[in-house]
Design brief:
Length: 221
């Protein structure tokens, strides 16, 4: 194959992949998809709702349209933006199938850690919380209730698909109790509450009403 036949598009797509990634992560951070919900809004309305600078509005929203995270009817200032079926299901915090918690954590923690990948490759040293605080990751997480809540939401979101499959494949109706390890119990019930009745009303409690789990007490000496 001659050089004229070679295509650098894959190289450029991967190399510049942080552009679309950060656009989506910022949209999740701003709760754009939650604010839209089942509505459609003009760019000006969205800008007012999210507190965006006017210069940023249309480039931001139209990039999300191009990435197929939003749909748009009309053009210019009269255009109206709305969620796609996927973002309505998975990125609206009011949806029982919300998985955005993992993206919230990616934006708040992991995105910056990966920015130090070259340093990690050269030194072999960790680039997470221990780099800046000297404390292990989980000790640092447990010291901050807000960050711990974010971590738990991330684990719940990334596990939701597995629990949905479990709820479809396994008959829970013959059991009265259940123990879940490593993931908030509500994760399994939120994926299919009707399939797992043992969790009851508590399992379908909205995200905003759940509290961060407490750190387990140390074992007796």
């Amino acid at each position: 194959m001659s050089r004229m036949e070679l295509d650098p598009s894959q190289i450029m797509q991967v190399g510049m992949g942080f552009w679309p990634s950060k656009t989506v992560l910022s949209a999740v951070e701003l709760e754009l998809f939650t604010h839209l919900g089942s509505e459609s809004m003009t760019g000006e309305q969205i800008g007012e709702r999210l507190g965006l600078h006017p210069r940023a509005i249309y480039d931001f929203l139209d990039t999300l349209v191009a990435l197929r995270f939003l749909e748009r009817d009309g053009d210019g200032s009269d255009g109206r933006y709305r969620n796609t079926a996927e973002t309505a299901a998975f990125l609206d915090k009011q949806s029982p199938t919300y998985i955005g918690g993992i993206l919230e954590m990616c934006n708040a923690r992991l995105y910056r850690f990966w920015g130090d990948l070259t340093e990690a490759l050269l030194t072999g040293k960790p680039q997470n919380e221990i780099k800046h605080t000297g404390k292990p990751m989980f000790e640092q997480l447990y010291s901050d209730p807000a960050r711990l809540e974010q971590f738990m939401e991330a684990m719940q979101g990334i596990s939701l698909g597995n629990f949905h499959t479990l709820a479809e494949k396994f008959d829970f109706s013959k059991y009265k109790t259940s123990a879940m390890s490593g993931v908030p119990p509500a994760s399994s019930a939120r994926s299919s509450p009707a399939a797992i009745p043992i969790f009851g009303a508590r399992a379908t409690t909205s995200r905003s009403s759940r509290r961060s789990p407490r750190r387990p007490s140390p074992p007796p000496a």
